[in-house]
Specification:
By secondary structure, this protein is α/β, with parallel strands linked by helices. It folds into 2 domains: 231 residues, Type I PLP-dependent aspartate aminotransferase-like (Major domain) (Aspartate Aminotransferase, domain 2, 3-Layer(aba) Sandwich), CATH 3.40.640.10; 114 residues, Alpha-Beta Complex (Aspartate Aminotransferase, domain 1). 48% of the residues lie in helices and 11% in strands. The chain is built from 15 helices and 13 strands. A 7-stranded mixed sheet has the order 2-10-9-8-7-3-4, with helices on both faces. β5 and β6 form a beta hairpin. α3 runs parallel beside α11, α11 packs across α14 and α14 runs antiparallel to α15. The protein is globular and about 60 Å long. Bound molecules: pyridoxal-5'-phosphate. Pyridoxal-5'-phosphate binds next to α4 and β9. The site of pyridoxal-5'-phosphate has 16 residues, from α4 and β9.
Length: 393
């Protein structure tokens, strides 16, 4: 039994950790230092507001330290590292800024918005109505003029920018005035692009008029899996006050310790890392387009984020493509969205993106035997085992 469990982990480590090229846009890898902190002694401990538990002196210091780096990095007036995931960060924002019957405006799941804040997700438990931002699939973005009109007409109580399929920055500054005029609280779900925002290479939601920036810490942000909330003083104070005891009790301090170190890495290396992530996704988009793949946004330079979208016309075909890629150790989702965060962190640059596009072509267009492509993928992956953009490996 024990051997089986350990074997699964070891085999997974070898396969996904060493032999695959991972292009899942929601994933990344931690530096060895950050990863090791996840299993520190701190992971056994509780703290709670009001210091109910004794023995937390050093953990309290880490929390203070982490919040300080986060506030500096994101130029936020408040920071909270306690949300256990991006989804819980969404919940904390929505549950506190809107009440039953209020309207939430966001990108619809059909247009690439996060299903968790769309119909059937959190709004259904919170009793919120949901309205979609008018969206252009040609430009893969919110339509500014129509969205201004929609905000004035619908009068949402909360507006959430950001999405799961996220190629281009959202028009936050363009829509803030309309949002303010109807008294809406503006949030930005930066789950996917948190690392690009930290590196100042995408957009700056808090400076552009969003009161809150929230989301995951493990997609383009290369921390442990978890969530974060950055905010202005007014809204941030409310959220910090309300988070306990409703949304988070024990905040998993080993995760927060690891996140604190990842924040420090991001402060030092984020700008160079994020710039390379974006150049890599643009290079990957261009190379795939040259092979005739249905890459979205060619007239717009394909992408300004970590994601590249290949539109095969539906989930069924997307799944077929993703399954074929998996047989050759190229890991993607069924979208087919490709993400360059992890390969960038492993040190790959534009030349390797061309190589990856070629490998994808060998699988999907040339229909080359998966064992042959897999061998090429493993060779490429083996060359890029070191984690970059961190203090030491
Ligand atoms: C835009 C967006 N928000 C929130 C989430 C949920 O994040 P987590 O997996 O950290 O709960 C996701 C998940 O992919 C997402 O794409």
């Amino acid at each position: 039994m024990i051997t089986e469990i350990l074997n699964f982990v070891e085999e997974h480590e070898q396969w996904r950790g060493r032999e695959c090229i991972n292009l899942i846009p929601s994933e990344n890898i931690m530096s060895p230092q950050v990863r090791s902190l996840l299993s520190s002694e701190i992971g056994h401990r509780y703290t709670s507001p009001g210091r109910f538990y004794m023995g937390t002196r050093l953990i309290d210091e880490i929390e203070r330290f982490g919040e300080e780096i986060a506030m500096k990095l994101f130029k936020a007036e408040t920071a909270d590292l306690r949300p256990l995931s991006g989804h819980i960060a969404d919940l904390i924002f929505l549950a506190n800024m809107a009440k039953r019957g209020d309207v939430l405006m966001c990108v619809s799941a059909d247009d690439g918005g996060y299903p968790g804040i769309w119909r059937g997700g959190l709004p259904s438990v919170l009793g919120l109505e949901v309205e979609a931002f008018p969206f252009s699939k040609d430009r893969m973005n919110i339509q500014v003029n129509k969205a201004q009109e929609a905000i004035v007409k619908v009068k949402p109580k909360v507006i959430v920018f950001g999405a799961s399929l996220f190629l281009f920055p959202h028009p936050v500054s363009e829509l803030t005035e309309a949002a303010r005029a109807v008294g809406a609280c503006v949030g930005f779900d930066g789950s996917h692009v948190m690392g690009l925002i930290a590196g100042e290479r995408f957009q700056s939601p808090l400076q552009d008029g969003s009161s809150v920036l929230f989301g995951s810490t493990h997609k383009t942000f290369f921390g442990p899996q978890g969530g974060i909330i950055l905010a202005d003083e007014e809204v941030g104070t409310v959220l910090k006050e309300k988070i306990y005891p409703v949304f988070v009790d024990n905040a998993h301090w080993n995760r927060i310790t690891a996140l604190t170190l990842a924040l420090a890495e991001m402060e030092k290396f984020g700008s160079v890392y994020a710039g390379q992530v974006i150049r890599n996704s643009q290079a990957l988009g261009r190379a795939l387009d040259d092979y005739g793949f249905p890459v979205v946004g060619s007239s717009l330079g394909y992408t300004e984020s970590h994601q590249v979208l290949m539109n095969f016309g539906g989930y069924k075909r997307g799944r077929e493509v993703a399954e074929k890629l998996e047989k050759s150790n190229i890991i993607a989702d069924c979208g087919v969205r490709l993400g360059t965060s992890e390969v960038t962190r492993r040190g790959m640059k534009e030349g390797e993106m061309e190589k990856i596009a070629q490998l994808i072509k060998e699988v999907i267009i040339d229909e080359k035997a998966s064992s042959k492509v897999r061998a090429e993928v493993e060779d490429l992956a083996e060359e890029f085992q070191k984690v970059n953009y961190c203090f030491q490996t």
